[in-house]
Amino acid sequence: MRSQDTPRKIIIDADPGQDDAVAILLALASQEIQVLGVTTVAGNVQLALTEKNARKICELAGKTETKVFAGASCPLVRPLVTAEEWHGEAGLGGPTLPEPLMPLQKLHAVDFIVQALMNEDPGTVSLCLLGPLTNMALALIREPLISSRIDQIVLMGGGFFTGGNVTPAAEFNIYVDPHAADIVFRSGVPIVVMPLDATNKVLTTRERVAAFRRLGTKVGTATADMLELFERSDTGRRFGEGGPLHDPCVIAYLIKPELFAGREVNVSIETVSDLTMGMTVADWWSVTDRPKNAIVISEADADGVFALLVERLERL
Ligand code: RIB
Ligand code: CA
To answer: What's the whole-number mean pLDDT along residues 44-60?
Structure first.
């Protein structure tokens, strides 16, 4: 087991995307965390862009030794759905970041996840999943033994009492690959779900975005440029001022779990109905005997999350 003062080893699986990018920056800036690797998946944009964007962000952070891997280019069963309207054609709308010079690892992301979990001591590696769950599901299929070796999965996904953001019923990450999500939630791995119920409370208001710009650093300016896009998007109008900053909440939870609150319940995934495909169904009042397979976060201290982000990103 991991002792309190040793860094927590994590693998970040992401589909950068601006909010994924800020989450990766937060992880790379935090001494409590050791990033074993960043694996990428198709989601916000195609895989060829998400893997390149992950390398751009690692270079922006000055962490070019970070290992970046490409994974699944499409969901397990359904056709890929992307989100250029939110993230821009190349997936990192806002700043102009140079083409990456650091290499993409040759190993497939799924093989890296399996190898890392089989090589590291059991219970010492956490998975931070920020995109569709295709790579995680494929790793569990490839080597079921990893399910007992994972410390915990902390994932951004789902919408319970706040509805969905891509259909009335479903949040994007789960909607894109509901079959992968079903495999992950049935795996028996301890799961913390960071859903829209929590992340919709963490809004990129003008003052919060300005705090990044005031850092006067490459990272601060690029972060402000990325997050201003949320302000200009229809998402911003949906919430009055600013858009929800989803993925960094996953990393913030690892660093300061006291910023969040939730409840352990059963979460099941809709994989049949066209009307509710990808819906995350929580047995909030234990009206069934379904196993409690996840802690669902419902509360977030937005000011605390942004204070942590500014304090850590200033270090890069
Ligand atoms: O629904 C929000 C999630 O979908 C975030 O992870 C965002 O990056 C997209 O992947
Ligand atoms: Ca994401």
So the answer is: 98
Please write the tens of the pLDDT for every residue from 276-299.
999 999 999 999 999 999 999 999
Instruction: Give percent of the chain with pLDDT exceeding 70.
Output: 96
> CA 229 to CA 11: how far, in whole Å?
27
State CA 109 to chain mean position distance.
16
Domains of the chain as residue ranges with CATH: 13-313 (3.90.245.10)
Identify the nearest ligand to the CA of 44 by its number. Answer: 1
**Does ligand 1 come within 6 angstroms of the Cβ of 225?**
no
| Side-chain half-sphere CA neighbours of 163 within 13 A | 5
- Cβ of residue 8 lying under 6 Å from some atom of ligand 1: no
- 56 vs 58: CA distance, rounded Å: 6
Q: Which helix (H) or strand (E) holds 33?
A: strand 33-40
What pLDDT sits at residue 237?
59
Q: From residue 191, give the alpha-carbon distance in Å to each of 9, 17, 126, 293.
A: 16, 23, 10, 7
Which ligand 1 atom minimizes the distance to the CA of 16?
8
* Residue to substitute in 13, 15, 166, 239 for testing ligand 1 pocket (most ligand atoms within 8 angstroms of CB): 15
Cα–Cα nearest to 261, from 234, 218, 299: 299
Distance 289 CA to ligand 2 centre (A): 32
For residues 161 and 44, give the distance between their C-alpha atoms in angstroms, rounded to a whole number.
24
pLDDT digits 0-9 by tens, 68-126: 999 999 999 999 999 887 777 788 988 889 999 999 999 999 999 999 999 999 999 99
DSSP line for 101-125: -SPPPSS-HHHHHHHHHHHSPTT-E
